């Protein structure tokens, strides 16, 4: 069969894999004009569907943004900041300003100190060499924070195009669908066309006569926990509504298991509260530290689940990270899973997490 391209986005058409670019049902392949399912849904239902590319494809595509004069809107998941922040974004997007939009704010407890969260995200971005022009907290699903973010996009784009980038599962499609709904209201306002100079497509959504917003494919970042869990487990570890803290009074030489994904050893220090912020469906078990290794071996995938058996087949082994926590009120963040707060500090701890998942510390948000 000769290769055909989508009239909408320029991706190579194929009927084998729905999750990949250019998918179209086989029955449509004989039509004269063909657009892929993603473009079709955008055009007819104002609905963006994410397709995923390999890291290299993505990087090659995104790199073209560095040749444009535009505003880059980087969507991240508040719950998975380290996993969903694209550390090479500066190199990929050139000198264009980057606006960081942190999604899923609806999951945070109301008492969260938002200033501290924004400050932490700016700091984390700066540590990766990225100076962001501003940070916004939103909920794409609930439509929270859009007035502010739209105003900022207008301000920082200075009449130029906008490129929306983000890792898979951060809510990029939900964000764009929400924007389209708020700004256009009508289906007719949406057209698709492809980004010149690439074979892989960006989806173009006109903002006015001269400028557009481009949706780029979701990047697959191997450090995101989401890539190692089964669909069933992903549902269990993803919180659905505002997090409710669970508090444990812990002595030293005790261990907490967060399902079988992560383990916290309280090695040394004064008894204190450990406040846990995870999906309600992630069971937390307490054991004695000396028994924890055996307990894990015996129960992972069963009593300690999620992960279920399917996830365990691809989940990397747990790696131990040790920390001294000098300060009171410190959060230990496990990207993609949640976090726990050490109430008083002055303790030595170990955290065991899947290899590649980058644990970080921050001043407590609550
Ligand atoms: P994409 O892969 O970045 O395009 O992400 P999607 O838009 O497909 O969303 C990924 C997941 O995050 C889905 O399960 C969404 O329901 C969920 N999600 C998106 N936005 C929000 C939000 O504002 N709050 C919460 N709690 N979940 C969200």
From TrEMBL:
One of its GO terms (molecular function) is GTP binding. InterPro entries: G_CP_dom (IPR030378), GTP-bd (IPR006073), GTP-bd_ribosome_bgen_YqeH (IPR019988), Mito_lipid_metab_GTPase (IPR050896), NOA1/YqeH-like_C (IPR048422), P-loop_NTPase (IPR027417). It comes from the Bacteria. It holds the Pfam family YqeH-like_C. Residues 58-222 form the CP-type G domain. This is CP-type G domain-containing protein. It comes from Gracilibacillus halotolerans. The lineage of its organism: Bacteria, Bacillati, Bacillota, Bacilli, Bacillales.
């Amino acid at each position: 069969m000769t290769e055909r391209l989508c009239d909408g986005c320029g991706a190579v058409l194929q009927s084998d894999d729905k999750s990949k670019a250019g998918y179209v049902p086989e029955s449509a392949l004989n039509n004269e004009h063909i657009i892929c399912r993603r473009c079709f849904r955008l055009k007819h239902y104002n609905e963006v569907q994410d397709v995923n590319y390999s890291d290299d494809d993505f990087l090659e595509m995104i790199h073209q943004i560095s040749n444009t004069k535009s505003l880059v809107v980087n969507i991240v998941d508040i719950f998975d900041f380290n996993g969903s922040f694209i550390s090479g974004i500066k190199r990929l997007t050139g000198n264009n300003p980057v606006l960081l939009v942190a999604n899923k704010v609806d999951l945070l407890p109301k008492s969260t100190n938002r200033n501290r969260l924004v400050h932490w995200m700016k700091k984390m971005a700066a540590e990766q060499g990225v100076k962001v022009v501003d940070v916004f907290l939103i909920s794409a699903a609930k439509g929270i924070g859009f007035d502010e973010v739209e105003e900022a996009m207008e301000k920082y784009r200075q009449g130029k195009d906008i490129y929306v980038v983000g890792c898979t599962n951060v809510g990029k499609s939900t964000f764009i669908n929400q924007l389209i709904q708020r700004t256009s209201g009508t289906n007719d306002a949406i057209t698709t066309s492809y980004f010149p100079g690439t074979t892989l497509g960006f989806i173009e959504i006109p903002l006015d006569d001269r400028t557009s917003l481009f949706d780029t494919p979701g990047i697959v970042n191997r450090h995101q926990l989401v890539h190692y869990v089964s669909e069933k487990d992903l549902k269990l570890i993803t919180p659905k509504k505002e997090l409710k803290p669970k508090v444990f009074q812990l002595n030293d030489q005790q261990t907490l298991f967060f399902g079988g994904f992560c383990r916290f050893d309280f090695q040394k220090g004064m008894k204190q509260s450990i406040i846990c912020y995870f999906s309600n469906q992630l069971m937390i078990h307490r054991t004695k530290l000396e028994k924890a290794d055996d307990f894990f071996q015996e129960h992972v995938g069963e009593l300690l689940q999620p992960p279920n058996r399917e996830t365990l087949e691809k989940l990397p082994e747990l790696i131990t990270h040790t920390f001294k926590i000098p300060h009171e009120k410190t959060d230990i963040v496990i990207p993609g899973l949640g976090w726990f707060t050490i109430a008083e500090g002055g303790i030595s701890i170990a955290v065991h997490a899947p290899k590649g998942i980058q644990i970080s510390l921050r001043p407590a948000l609550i």
